[in-house]
Design brief:
Number of strands: 0
Order of helices and strands: HHHHHHH
Number of helices: 7
CATH topology: Four Helix Bundle (Hemerythrin (Met), subunit A)
CATH class: Mainly Alpha
Bound molecules: fe (ii) ion
Strand content: under 5%
Number of domains: 1
CATH superfamily: nmb1532 protein domain like
Helix content: over 70%
Structural class: mainly alpha
CATH architecture: Up-down Bundle
Shape: elongated
Low-confidence stretches: 159-167
């Protein structure tokens, strides 16, 4: 269904963001599922954490910066705050050895990011799209990809890899 929906320019930052959301949403389904086992959730989280960093940091550096510099300042700030809450939960989860604590936290993380992604897709991205030209969004799309490459090149623990983003 998503493939049919996507008819925009592939370099448009809005399209790049929607594309990154696909894998995040797939992993969120497992992380919040009542049926998934501890091991399944652990495996999903292991892929989710770097994929989130690979998406959220470039988003902050490009799209959110642009919103904050214009008339979507509050939305941009809201996004920053939600990212930092998710980041904090990810860091805690990496250190959690208790199974029940992991299960509780991973669900809260999944629900937080699910809500965040929904808001971006239903409110923020459409509003942003209405207020910008395709040219501006392609320019930001380039910056977004550059920021992702830079993060990837840093290669620390949280660095995204091609495999994480495009499994
Ligand atoms: Fe975001
Ligand atoms: Fe996003």
């Amino acid at each position: 269904m998503a493939a049919h929906r996507r008819q925009g320019n592939p370099e448009d930052i809005v399209e790049l963001i929607l594309q990154d959301h696909v894998i995040l949403k797939q992993l969120i389904e497992i992380m919040k599922s009542e049926d998934a086992s501890f091991r399944e959730k652990q495996a999903a989280f292991k892929r989710f954490a770097p994929a989130l960093v690979a998406h959220a940091k470039p988003e902050e550096q490009t799209w959110y910066m642009k919103m904050k510099s214009e008339d979507m300042k509050v939305e941009g700030l809201e996004g920053d705050i939600e990212h930092s809450l998710a980041d904090q939960l990810c860091e805690e989860l990496k250190r959690t050895s208790d199974r029940d604590e992991f299960m509780a936290k991973v669900k809260v993380l999944a629900e937080l990011v699910e809500h965040h992604v929904e808001e971006e897709e239903e409110d923020m991205l459409p509003e942003f799209k209405r207020g910008t030209t395709l040219e501006e969004r392609i320019d930001l799309g380039m910056q977004y990809l550059e920021a992702q490459q830079e993060l990837d090149a840093q290669g620390d623990d949280d660095a995204p890899s091609e495999r994480t983003l495009h499994p």
